[in-house]
Amino acid sequence: MNLAAAIPSGSEQVLAAAPLAGIEDAINAVFDPISAALSAFVFAEITIFGITFPWIVGWLVVAATLFTVYFGAVQFRKFGLALQIVRGRYTRKDEPGEINHFQALSSAVSGTVGLGNIAGVGVAVTIGGAGATFWMIVAGLLGMCTKFVECTLGVKYREYHADGTVSGGPMHYLRKGVAERIPGATGKVIGRVLAAGAAVFILFFGIAGGNMFQANQTFAQLRDVTGGSDGLLGGGGASLIFGILLAIVVGAVIFGGITSIGRVTSRLVPSMAILYVTACLVVIVVNITSVPAAFAAIIGGAFNPEGVAGGAIGALIVGFQRAAFSNEAGLGSAPIAHSAVKTKHPVTEGYVAMLEPFIDTVVICTMTALTIVIAGTPFYRDAQASAFAGGETPDGVLVTSDAFGTVLPGFPYVLTVAIALFALSTVITWAYYGQKAWTYLVGKSRTTERIYQLGYCFFVVVGSVLTLDAVLSFADAVLFLLALFNIIGLYLLAPVVKREVAAYRQKLDSGEVSRIPHSSRR
User: Fold this and answer.
1) Whole-prediction pTM value?
2) How many C-beta atoms lie closer than 10 Å to residue 237's C-beta?
3) Which of 24, 273, 457, 518 is 20 to 30 A from 465 in CA distance terms?
4) Under a CB-based contact definition with an 8 Å cutoff, are residues 27 and 468 in contact?
5) How far apart (Å, rounded) are the C-alpha atoms in residues 104 and 337?
6) For 98, which DSSP code?
7) Where are the alpha helices (DSSP H) in 255-377?
8) Given the DSSP bridges, would you call strands 166-167 and 159-160 parallel, antiparallel or unpaired?
9) Residues 6+ apart with CB under 8 A from 78
10) What is the pLDDT of residue 483?
11) Where are the strands (E) in 135-225, listed by range?
């Protein structure tokens, strides 16, 4: 979820009254040097064998590749089992947890599917060519295994509370798991330090990137389609009113906890996915004669692109980078939602979690890229020519919107609905992620939860009114810094996951775990 790559055109014009602009400038002034330093480290590029790429992308892709080999390509072998589990065929009603497998999956997907799937992909196919789509798919398929590992651990090391709720995620499996793998006081100290760092990173991004950024960009898009600064939402107080209304909607959901969030996202995620994918299919069907040429461009461009900076390697890096930024495999965020699932067998949710990068990257990101390539608008071709020549790359949302506009003249309104749904689902899910990080740091009680929830709703309003570019850039870097610590933990705990796989396979083979009749499912 790279924030910089997802900002729609015109976002810099988000309204801020003069006094608020002063506050915004003051906050940005404080965060500017911090953000610049951290971003320079997290997104620094390295060169290996003549290939230059951000080291954090390499860190994520190498881990995904190694886990795929270590677990024998489990994402392909157990894809069918994952679909059966998410339908409730192997889990009974009375198993521990708060939400069913489908609700856990939809909650996690809602946190990753967002503006990056629309705008970020537009950037990818512009600067990486059609071939970037191929490598984006490859990276998404590899990332499925990373999600399998981290979400299995999230369930295995989750904590149960007296009120029946559960808490999981990197804060817990890093603390407990690392202490198990490294005996003595050293393991305990390392585990606690990694866990505390993970909690802080998640909390900060939840408030800034998962909340303020989403609210800000949703209002920006709404204002743009209603006539800009001179339109319906052009008044100075429009952003404040919008922020308050959005905060009320978000508060109504998150005050109910993960069960309420699961109910909402289990309806919201399929709705927004169907809406967006249907729009993509309309463009593809209308341009059906261009489909073979588009696939040829995607496959051919992956290995022998013409004009792309860096050639085939350039297309590969752009595709891998977009996939990593989109599905967040290895960042440790998704295991928080998946940990709330009702199951006695941690590996079952690991299987379900594999579907998340598939939906986010292999399906939605690919549909966006395919739509852009098939439409082949003059704007897209001009943008590519500019990018290949070293010029500026236009905002990705313009590339995507222009492609849809060839078939759907009113698509800016459809896009606005899609952005609103994507943003709302992301805000709701990251509210839960941030709350679990907050209660890990300060303790879990009704009071601490309410303080966080009220504060989170307050920042929804702040995000609608202020832009705070430096804060959002800092949050972006913080989230990916989490991958550095999280994946170290995943390497250490991979043997634990392998034991869980073996134990569950034995139960399946012995008949101890079997398909459940419909009447006994959740």
Assistant:
1) 0.84
2) 11
3) 273
4) yes
5) 6
6) S
7) 257-286, 291-303, 311-327, 334-338, 346-353, 355-357, 366-375
8) antiparallel
9) 351, 354
10) 87
11) 159-160, 166-167
Rounded to the nearest 10°, the torsion over CA 310, 317, 7, 269 is: 150
| Token pair in block for residue 21 | 């602009």
Which tokens go with 430? 């990251």
Domains for the chain: give ranges and CATH numbers. Answer: 9-511 (1.20.1740.10)
484, two tokens: 């550095």
Distances (CA, A) of 126 to 289, 309, 364, 389, 399: 22, 11, 17, 12, 8
Two tokens at 434? 């941030």
Residue given tokens 């943003």 in the structure block: 423
C-alpha of 184 from chain center: 36
Coil, helix or strand at residue 208: helix
Q: How large is the C-alpha radius of gyration of the chain?
A: 22
Tokens of 238: 């429009």
Instruction: Give the 3-state secondary structure of residue 344.
Output: coil
| 36, 155, 199 from 359: Cα distances, Å | 33, 21, 26
Question: Is residue 255 exposed (0-12), middle (13-18) or buried (19+ Cβ within 10 Å)?
Answer: middle
Query: In the chain, which residues have pLDDT < 50?
Result: 4-5, 7-17, 307, 309, 519, 521-522
The pLDDT assigned to 390 comes to 67
Identity of residue 121:
V
